[in-house]
Request: fold
Amino acid sequence: MKFITKLIAILALLPTLALAEGGEFPLDAQPKGTTDLSSLQNGAKLFVNYCLNCHSASAMRYNRLRDIGLSEEQIKDNLLFTGTKVGDLMKTSMLPADGKAWFGATPPDLSVMARAKASHAGSGGDYLYTYLRSFYKDDTRPTGWNNMVFPNVGMPNALWELQGIRTVKMVEEKDPHDESKSVQTFGGYNQVTPGKLSPLEYDNAVADLVSYMVWMAEPAQNTRRQLGVWVLLFLGLFAVLAWRLNASYWKEIK
Reply:
């Protein structure tokens, strides 16, 4: 009995421990879902142009993009390069050894990254949406970039041309645990040079990209949810019929 009590206490503390270990930078809510086809199409375009240079999505084929409203001709004309075929997997031409040499680690496959980053602190979409908007220039890092969500990340800001160059602004505040000391806290960003997009346009572009990545992690999720509603309605109707049948049966027995 004592063992069970201790186990329950440990399980109850897991979310707190995970938060302490996983960082405290707050995540912004992903503003778009996976039902807007125009958003998904723009996200797919951004993914192919900016992410596939270093990352693969080896669980996804280009022809699956027909599920988000793109025709085979549109896929060929806008999303295929270097002789890639519509039925091919989304793979990068970068060799793993080169990626490790340039970034310190092989760039991960992004097929299910949106699901892998889901946690108690937010969905995988929330994590990716905040992460892609939290890069800043840091000349102390090998790539020249750093990230507030993932400190000392090896990845550079692949979208810097769209976002522009920013530096982080730190504010000195009193340590809440010791008033005799001060700590540096995040105070926002300083825009050094503008990007091709305004801040609002950039946030919308990142939202489209993240929506696509969330969809790519489970292309059948919208169908699953729609089917789930019908299944629940059927079970509800079946429960009512079973209840009335049971009442009728026992009425005859009595």
User: Anything to note?
Assistant: The first helix runs from residue 2 to 22. The two ends are 45 Å apart (CA to CA).
